[in-house]
Amino acid sequence: MSMIKFTKDHEWIRVEGHIGVVGITDYAQHALGDIVFVELPEVGKEVTRGSDAAVVESVKAASEVYAPVDGEVTEINVALADEPALVNASPLDRGWFFKMRIANLIELDALMDEAEYQSYLEGLA
Amino acid sequence: MTGDSTSDTPSSLALTPLNALHRELGGKLVPFAGYEMPVQYPAGILKEHLHTRAQAGLFDVSHMGQLRLTGDNPAAALEALVPGDIRGLGLKRTRYSLLLNEAGGVLDDLMITNAGDHLFLVVNAACKQADIAHLRARLAGAVEVEYLKDRALLALQGPTAAAVLERFVPGAATMPFMSYAEGSIAGIPVLLTRSGYTGEDGHEISIPNDRAEEVARLLLAQEGVAPVGLGARDSLRLEAGLSLYGHELDETTTPVEAALVWAIGKRRRSEGGFPGFGVIGRQLTEGTKRRRVGIRPDGRAPARDGTPILDEAGRPIGTITSGGFGPSVNAPIAMGYVATSRAATGTRVTLVVRGKPLPATVVDLPFVKQNYYRG
What we know:
Chain A has helices at 26-32, 79-82, 86-89, 114-124, and strands at 3-6, 11-16, 19-24, 35-39, 46-47, 52-58, 62-66, 71-76, 98-102. Chain A is α+β, with helices and mostly antiparallel strands. Chain A has a single domain (3-116), classed as CATH 2.40.50.100. In chain A, 44% of the residues are buried. By secondary structure, chain B is of the alpha+beta class. Among the domains of chain B are: 19-62 and 150-239, 2-Layer Sandwich (Gyrase A, domain 2), CATH 3.30.1360.120; 289-375, Elongation Factor Tu (Ef-tu), domain 3 (Beta Barrel), CATH 2.40.30.110. Chain B is built from 9 helices and 19 strands. Chain B has helices spanning 19-24, 45-54, 74-78, 128-139, 161-168, 209-220, 230-239, 266-271, 277-286; strands spanning 28-32, 35-40, 56-60, 65-71, 94-100, 106-114, 119-123, 143-147, 151-157, 180-185, 188-193, 202-208, 225-227, 290-297, 308-310, 316-326, 331-339, 348-353, 356-363. The longest helix of chain B has 12 residues, at 128-139.
């Protein structure tokens, strides 16, 4: 059974066992506008919570995507190379960025669940 | 991830007469040159850009400065500050020009129109206060410089734009490119120039502030007209190879370095009488150390303003001054300055993006063919 957690920087991580799939939320893709390029990490890269993991470029500017927890990148979404707009169209599904092996599952406790993230968004408005 | 959120207007930002309309249209408002301006509407930058090249985009550019110069011979007087042939600018004709400093550097780029009994100028928003002060100081006694702060400015651009305007102003569609006319839209007196900043056909429309929203709504109600924000305005002008003050042009760039030699009048090249004539004259005969060029990254990653440019041996040869994504070419595009020895079209260069070397090529401008009205 998978669970999904969210960061204050609008990344999501969907967890199955020790593997997490990471992407950005609908709020984030909307704020960025049309995405034209995604720079993904290399497979094997070690990431730490809050460190730079990927870069997403909209027409106007580049934005950093941070690793939600410590771990190692195991797979990247190669479809984004030809279709960066997938992130706008399907941010929680086909627009996923990378998968990672989560070093410490306990770090997920520090992230928000769906309800907490929705409240957080309401607070931003 | 990093990102902005739109907040309430800080009280220090100026508003254009269309501010309420922008909010009604769902515009994303951001600070720009001291004004609150729409960077995009709900359609988004990509769609707004493509729409302008396919149909007609309506832009609010009221933040720019509109000036009226009167006096005995404002054209002759103005020639002391710009390198263009202003005395020879025909009646109801418009010309692109540059305000220069004593080193031949650019203080601002602007449009100058011969409106008969006065010159009508449009200057950049970020420079307008400095431009007005400069003009008043240097032309004191000869020319009166009136800042038309009670006027708004719209741009209607795209292949169907002129046909739309024709419905309101008969003759608008056959105005020559870079010409001027006084007309009225639904009884509202307006000033028109057939010019723009997108590479497409279209007009700029000067309207009294209190009628601007009315004119905007009339135009937006026309088939094929959509509101377009400053985000797409930037991607459109970049594709068109047009310089942006503060990026390709500033006080350290001369018109020769900026590949704008055509803005120096033929007569003026020999007669001089404009600031920086010495420097510019030398550059015209001896060449320059660097030149503005187009740059096309190989891959899909954009290279932005400030990106270092290296040659084949990894030596720094220049910097990107504007860069982003060109929706009409579906690729990243950029402009920058490179050493003249590496400025030839086709030269291979390296761009340093986030610490990584990305290959690119020096290319001709514009990236997209210009569609100006040729009669």
